[in-house]
Design brief:
disulfide bond, FAD/NAD(P)-binding domain-containing protein, elongated, alpha/beta, oxidoreductase, 223 residues, FAD/NAD(P)-binding domain
C-alpha cells in the first residue's frame, strides 16, 4: 500500500478518503542532485523510488548512468586525465634535479582510459550502495511522466512499468551540445573527448571556458 508524504518529518496515517501511492517521492535521474534528494527524503522516512538510464561514458537519450555528469563524464574523469597529463612535464623536469632516466618512458593512452573507467565504475557502485543503504528503490531504464502522479519506466528489455508517487522530481540534468555552425557534424563534444579510442595528434578546441582549457592542457601535457 502506498503512503502519504511526510509532514514535519512524521508520517501521517492515511484515511480511506486520501489517495495512496506506490512512493512518496519518485526521482527521474540519478545524478548528484537526484541521488542526494532521494537519500535525504528516504532518511527522513519517505518511501522513495529513482530511475536512471543504463551506464555509458557518453550520454544520450538512451544511455546515462548512476552518478550523472560529474562522476561519469565531467569532474571525475577530467581530473584523472589532468592528473595523468602532469607526469610528462614532471619526468622531463626531473632531469634538472639530478634524476637520469636511462630508458624510454612510453605513454599508453588506452591504459589511462582504463584507469578512468575503473574509477568511474567504482564511484557509480558507491552511489548505488548509498541508495540501497537508504532503502531507495533503484530502477534502470528511461523514466517518463505519464500522468499527474504517475511515472512510467521503460526497462532495458523494453518492458514498461508504471508507478504512482505523491511527488515526482525531475533531475535529468543536461547533455553537451554542439553549436549550430557549419561543420559541426565533424566535431566532438567533451563527452567523446573523454573516451577517444586513439589519442589525437592534433586538436583544435572551440571555446575558452574551463572545460576547454582543461582539455587543451590535457592534450598538450601528453604531447
Amino acid at each position: 500500500m502506498g503512503r502519504k508524504m511526510l509532514a514535519d518529518g512524521e508520517l501521517d496515517k492515511a484515511t480511506s478518503e486520501e489517495a495512496t501511492y506506490d512512493f512518496d517521492l519518485f526521482v527521474i535521474g540519478a545524478g548528484s542532485g537526484g541521488v542526494r534528494a532521494a537519500r535525504f527524503s528516504a532518511n527522513n522516512g519517505a518511501k522513495v523510488g529513482i530511475c536512471e538510464l543504463p551506464f555509458h561514458p557518453i550520454s544520450s537519450e538512451e544511455i546515462g548512468g548512476v552518478g550523472g555528469t560529474c562522476v561519469i563524464r565531467g569532474c571525475v574523469p577530467k581530473k584523472i586525465l589532468v592528473y595523468g597529463a602532469t607526469y610528462g612535464g614532471e619526468l622531463e623536469d626531473a632531469r634538472n634535479y639530478g634524476w637520469e632516466i636511462n630508458e624510454n618512458v612510453d605513454f599508453t593512452w588506452k591504459k589511462l582510459l582504463q584507469k578512468k573507467t575503473d574509477e568511474i565504475l567504482r564511484l557509480t557502485n558507491i552511489y548505488k550502495r548509498l541508495l540501497a543503504n537508504a532503502a531507495v528503490k533503484l530502477y534502470e531504464g528511461e523514466g517518463r511522466i505519464v500522468g499527474p502522479n504517475e511515472v512510467e519506466v521503460r526497462q532495458i528489455d523494453g518492458t514498461k512499468i508504471s508507478y504512482t508517487a505523491k511527488h515526482i522530481l525531475i533531475a535529468t540534468g543536461s547533455r553537451a551540445q554542439k553549436p549550430n555552425i557549419p561543420g559541426h557534424e565533424l566535431a566532438i563534444t567533451s563527452d567523446e573527448a573523454l573516451s577517444l579510442e586513439e589519442f589525437p595528434k592534433r586538436a583544435v578546441v572551440l571555446g575558452g571556458g574551463y572545460i576547454a582549457v582543461e582539455f587543451a592542457s590535457i592534450w598538450r601535457g601528453m604531447g
